[in-house]
Amino acid sequence: MPRFAANLSMLYPELPFLERFEAAAKDGFEGVEYLFPYEHPPQELATRLKGNGLQQVLFNAPPGDFSAGERGLACLPGREEQFRTGLAQALEYAQVLQCPRVHVMAGLIPTGRSKSDLRATYVENLRWAAKQAQPHAVQLLIEPINTRDIPGFFLNRQDEAHGLLDEIGEPNVKVQMDLYHCQIVEGDLATKIRRYLPTGRVDHFQIAGVPQRHEPDTGELDYGFLFRVIDEVAAASRWNGWVGCEYRPARGAAPGGTSEGLGWLRRWRAGA
Ligand SMILES: O=C(O)[C@@H](O)C(=O)CO
Ligand SMILES: [Mg+2]
To answer: Which domain of life is it from (predicted)?
Structure first.
């Protein structure tokens, strides 16, 4: 059975961030992920993890000025110094949180530039970052994201991500395969799981219903089927990673809305 992690940036929106750890543990999660931890001292987060018996499975490196619309720095020529400072901060958090994965967001294609213009910067930044992460046993993840949610994002398709891994050539850079984005951009999910998971280069999955990014049992995808595919391929490929529940609960910030919406997980755990 896949191990499911609660994405605390999206789940439990009715609670202050630091209270979401306890809520996730009460709902039976053993792992958590979130986008950016940097508003909180790492020791505070580590205390929440330990106090609730949770593992930190993933978080993101600093993305640049998120409130101004930036979505990562890795592909941006001229921003290398800020990219490096951010990566160093992420690795400090990873050590305190004992987190084995950091997602490095690619960034937006600047006006007038093309993906091919930015490729060399992206590859060099990831190579440098991989060498920094390696002594800490941290995997760096790259995530293809759909351009409806993030217009102009540099990395959109699974085949692009795997082509970039070939070029980066560092074993601790892997793919974060978000099935929500993958369905919107390219579809054919079961075949892509079967193609890419056995390569050993997919380290983490994320899920949400499509198109509304609500619970996985809403929308056009049959996640029961996809979880069985992941289970089957994982057993043959010795993959033992996590599936991040990265969706916006349909009940929004209504009290208890996230927990009520976890019927899909309770049914899956009960084998239904
Ligand atoms: O899918 C997403 O949106 C996230 O996994 C992420 O890291 C960037 O927003
Ligand atoms: Mg994602």
So the answer is: Bacteria
CATH number reported for the structural domain that contains residue 23 in this entry: 3.20.20.150
SS3 at position 56: strand
The answer to whether 246 is a known catalytic residue is yes
Rounded CA-CA distance 142/102 in Å is 9
- Residue with the nearest Cα to atom 2 of ligand 1? 145
Question: For residue 199, how far is its CA from the centre of ligand 1 (angstroms)?
Answer: 23
Structure tokens at 75: 């592909």
**Residue 268 and residue 84: Cα distance in Å, rounded?**
41
Angle at 239 between CA 234 and CA 240, to 5 degrees: 110
- Listed as ranges, residues in the chain with pLDDT below 50 are none
Task: Verify whether ligand 1 is closer than 6 Å to residue 203 (CB atom).
Answer: no
Taking every pair of Cα atoms in the chain, the longest distance, rounded to a whole number of angstroms, is: 52
Is residue 87 classed as helix, strand or coil in its secondary structure? helix
Paired tokens of 138: 């941290």
Question: Does pTM top 0.90 for this prediction?
Answer: yes
**Can you tell me the distance from the alpha carbon of 69 to that of 67, in angstroms, rounded to the nearest whole number?**
5
What residue numbers bound the domain in which 104 lies? 3-269
Q: Are 87 and 59 in contact, with CB atoms under 8 Å apart?
A: no
157 exposure class (CB count in 10 Å sphere: 0-12, 13-18, 19+): middle
pLDDT digits (tens, 9 = 90+) for 233-242: 999 998 999 9
Number of domains in the chain: 1
Q: Is 46 exposed, middle or buried (0-12, 13-18, 19+ CB in 10 A)?
A: middle
